[in-house]
Amino acid sequence: MRTTGAFLSSATGKTIRTWAYVMAEKALKMATYLITGVLVARLAGPEIFGLYSSFLATAVIFTVFASLGQNALLIKEFFRANEPRKVMVNAFVMRIQAAAISGLALLVAVIWLLEAEITAGLLTLALVPIATFQIADCFFEARRQMQTVLLYKAPAYGIGLILKVSVAAFAPDAVLLLAAHLAEMGVIFIGSALSILKTAGRPQHGDMDWSYQKHLFRSGMPLMFSSVAVILYMKIDVSMVLRLSGAADAGIYAVATRLCEALFILSAPIIIAVFPRLLALHVEDQEAYATYMRRVFAILLGGGVLIAIVTFALSGWLIALLFGVDYAVSAQVLRIYALSTPLIFLGDLFSRWIVLSDNLGLSSQRHLWGLVTNIALNFLLIPMHGPVGAAVASVAGNIVATIAFSVLHPKARPFYTFLRTS
Question: Which residues contact 6 (CB under 8 A, 6 or more apart)?
Answer without folding.
Answer: none
